[in-house]
Amino acid sequence: MARELFGTDWIKLEVIGNDDTLQPDVFGLVEAAGALARDGFKVFPYATEDLSVAERLQRAGCEVIMPWGAPIGSGQGLANVAALTSLRAYFPDIMLIIDAGIGAPSHAALAMELGYDAVLLNTAVAKAADPARMAEAFASVVKAGRLGFEAGLMPTRDMAVPSTPVAGTPFFDLD
């Protein structure tokens, strides 16, 4: 139907495994994604941030993977930053889109700073008091987050490091 009505082979795939959390059924997702990919579709699967699931989706033919940031409509942001960071590092050449859980513009900025290619959001804009302004806020931070990633963010450190090192720098006594 997608091909006939919309003239596209792109299809977003959601296989929901739990009605309360709307967490994907990762087993059914991989199976359905493989069937659709074999039928010529470009499948955009809504998945968890699990690395092994992403590997299976890629092997099933998915060129894009869309891990959740948090449960759909929860507004929690990126609930497992460490796993999402690992996913991006493990798949540097695959398009990764955060799908679900984004509630604030800062959540979208963080996703982009982690190197994600895009964020997909709905509830955060739709439920805002001023949806147009909220959409504008998201557009601004997505650009800023991506620019920060591309510029090369400063790495975090366990200890302080002076921004102007003084070791080996001569000091002059002006008296």
Short structural summary:
Helix content is 41%, strand content 13%. It has seven helices and five strands, in the order H-E-H-E-H-E-H-E-H-E-H-H.
Walkthrough of the structure:
This protein has 7 helices and 5 strands. The protein has about 180 residues and is an alpha/beta fold. It has a 5-stranded parallel beta sheet, with helices on one face. The protein is elongated, with a radius of gyration of 20 Å. The termini are far apart.
The first-to-last residue Cα distance is 84 Å
Helix content: 40-55%
Oligomer: single chain
The strand order across the widest sheet is 1-2-3-4-5
Specify the biggest β-sheet.
5 strands, parallel
Helix count equals 7
Order of helices and strands: HEHEHEHEHEHH
What descriptive keywords fit this protein?
175 residues; alpha/beta; 7 helices; 5-stranded parallel β-sheet; single chain
Set out the fold topology.
Layout: H1 2-6, E1 10-13, H2 26-38, E2 42-47, H3 51-59, E3 64-67, H4 81-90, E4 95-99, H5 105-113, E5 118-120, H6 123-126, H7 131-151
Parallel strand pairs: 1-2, 2-3, 3-4, 4-5
Helix pairs in contact: 2-3, 5-7
